[in-house]
Amino acid sequence: MTKVLLCLCALYLALPCPLRADEQVRQVQEELRKRNLYFGNVDGQNTPELGTALKRYQKRKGFAVTGNIDQLTATSLHISMTAVAVASLPDVPVLKSDTASALPESQRLALEREAEQNPDPSATPPAPAESPAAGQDIGPDRINKLVTDYLRDGESQDIPAQVKYFGFPVRYFDHGVVSEQFVAEDTRRYIKRWPERKYTVIGPIAFFASPSNDETNIEFTIGFELHSDARTTKNRVSGRTKNWWTVRPEGEELKIVAIREERIRE
Predict the structure, then answer these.
(1) The domain that contains 254 carries what CATH number?
(2) What is the pTM of this model?
């Protein structure tokens, strides 16, 4: 009996389990991603790549170059050392924008050089209070329907139904300008990682004119619930994101030509 129990325990320990990530590390990854210093996965895992990015940031700020998340570095990145003791997300990318950047090496190096001049980018500016130009002929009902339809299709397993909303080439999260094939493959991987997804719009959907006469910018917040396995609640995550789109009419349809998102820290 003892041998049987030991075998069962060993088998249980060998089974894969949804490890919880370090929330503080995830926040550091997010902040260094904004500053074009970190290009790996935002997954809460303390990797050598993150350590290298931290050293770059610390050197540029004149801090002790340790590659570790110390109090001075965390404060500079606007991260609390005490409020993130409990991990809330698994150690895998949760948002589509959490996956490692697919930028070419030359473009990545250019962004890193730019970051040397601006290690502390300002927050996203508020949207100007103006509507799209008259020639765009885009009303709130059309915008609301676009966002609602996109989110409902985003809950499905249908890859073409999700990809159809983009106008290609599209500026896609932190990956730069990408093709339809890239978005389709990224969508396939995301569905595999999170087969069950639920999205809810929170608050009003704002839209305003883009500097380009035929484009419109959209801003909105969503709540998300993701589930990797319907048989268990262990790997279920939820949260909110702020979302920014740029859309452009193509025939009778509106197409997303730029998209980005940012997790709202609870």
Answers:
(1) 3.10.450.50
(2) 0.85
